Input
Amino acid sequence: MTVTHRSQSETGIQRDAWVEINLAALERNFKKLKELTNTPIMAIVKADAYGHGATTIAPILQSMKADSFGVATVDEGISLRNANITLPILILGSTPNWSYKSCIANDLTITIHSPEQINQLQDFCSNSGLRTKIQIKLDTGMNRLGVNPNELDKTIDIVLSSDIFQLTGIYSHLSDSKDYNFSMKQKEQFDNAIKKYKELKIQTHIANSYAAINYPEFRYSLVRLGIGLYGQEFNFLEPLISLKGRVTQVHEILKGASVSYDRTWTAENNALIATVPIGYADGVDRNLSNKINALYKNKAIKQVGTITMDQMMFDITGIENLKVGDSITLLNKDLPVSNWAKILNTITFELVCRLKMRLPRIYSRE
Ligand SMILES: Cc1ncc(COP(=O)(O)O)c(C=O)c1O
Output
């Protein structure tokens, strides 16, 4: 393994718990997705690249000829600019009017999601003598953020009547991409709304990873890929992320002794317990208590007792030679995040985002 670098998390790196992020897997995923979709790719790196570290991930994707980046907030966009990202950056969320100035100063593309907002942005730009790049987001059924298709013409009229705006795209977002029929309905709305504007020669896009991979007709001029790049959700792609920690204590307990808060696990026989300094403050949900395994040298060890804020315990009875300082793996290719997602009745997206909370990241290329 080549360790590329270690990035400091907010609470520092001096602890025996970390995530490893394999940048070679990112490169392989990007290549596969590029070959499969044969369409320019907007890499979605919001929420710190779904917890993988946007300022490390984005330069690699920039060098691999991604088309552009999508972020959720102005600050996420600025941190990419500070990491020498020169490609277009689209803010997918709503930009507060008090951040228009820093948005424009950092060449971030503002999403327009209502006619009122375009008026407001026009006023701001006229008063300050600035111009800006924008994309219009249409709401075709997600009902989260976006111009109502009936109001698209009105919005575009304002955009085209002024030289303040450089309109680079119109896009929408699927609310249930795994449902082909519903996605088709959204696509039809999108097609109807944009058909008049073909001559504008701007980007049009609607596909997330699932739609881009499965529905070629949803690819338009750009696909917006997030989770696929990080190798979750699709078996033909590789997860980038592993979660590891070193054992800090090994001790024997007697039959009948309980482990951790609320005594949710009791030893049926004398047992050997290992403590690992990873807890729910690191993004490992407390509801996983007593339900997950880790790996020690390819052997499964069972997590026992309630997961605490900073530590959790494992039953290592019968595992020979496991000692303080040895590392164990909680997540990797063989222990996928999707196992946790099933237990928690959630999605891998949420769980990988959470792992960035306190854990240092080690980047490798293998
Ligand atoms: C507007 C928008 N586009 C694209 C994506 C990427 O979706 P995925 O991670 O499923 O590829 C997201 C993710 O939530 C999004 O909010």
Remarks:
- The two ends are 6 Å apart (CA to CA).
